[in-house]
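Suppose a colleague, Dr. K., hands you the sequence of a protein chain of 223 amino acids and asks what its three-dimensional shape might be. Before reaching for any lab equipment, you can write down a predicted structure in C-alpha cell form. Begin with the sequence itself:
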Amino acid sequence: MNNYKTGALIADLRRQNNWTQSDLAQKLGVTDKAVSRWETGRGLPDISLLKPLSEILGVTVNELIIGERIKPEAQTASADDTILKTLLHSNQRVNRLINGLLFAFGGILLVIAVLFLGYDTSWVSIYSVLGMLFVATGVFRLFKKRLMTGLLAAGLTLLLAFGLFEARDYISVTLHGMPPLYTISITTTFPNGEKTIRYHKLFYDVYRYHVDSEDEFYRIVHP
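The predicted structure, expressed as C-alpha cells, is then:
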C-alpha cells in the first residue's frame, strides 16, 4: 500500500459524499484524528477496517490498497497483481526478519566469545562456532537467488571467522597463558614423568609444560 495514494483516494471519496472527517470517523467507529492521519499519508487503516471502509466509500478493497479507481474490465487482472505484490512484499519482510535475527544472534554470540578471551571454557568455542554459522547462513540468504555468489560470500564469511578464531587462540596462549580452544587434536605425554600436553593446530602446535603447576608455561612451535 502507498500511504499517500490511499490517503488521497479516501479524502477524495469522502469529499464526494460531502462528509467531514468526523462523519467518516463516526461511521467506522474511529477518531477523526485517525481519518486525518490516513488522508495525509501519516498512517494506514487497520486491516480489519479495509472491508467496512471500502463498503462505506463505495470502492473495492483492492482499489483502497492501490489508491486509485479501477475500470470494471480491469478489476480481475488488477486484483491478481495486487495479491502477487502483497505476497511478494510479505515474503520480503519475512526474509528480512529472518536475516536480521541470524545476524543479531550470530553477532551476539561472536561478541560473547571475544569477551571471554582469557577464560578456559568450552562454552566459548560453542558460542563462537554457532555465531559463525548463524552469520554465514544470514550472508548466504542475502544472495540465495544467486547460488554461486551466496556460496562464495558464505565461504568468505567462514574464512574470516576462522581467522578471528585463530587470532583469538594466539592471543589467549601468548598473552593470557591459556590453552587454545580450536585444535585438530590434543595429545598428552609424560616425558621424564612430567605431564606435557600438545595442542595440534592447523599452522602450528602449542606445547603446555608443567601442567597445573606454578611453573606451567606454553611454547608455540611452527612446523
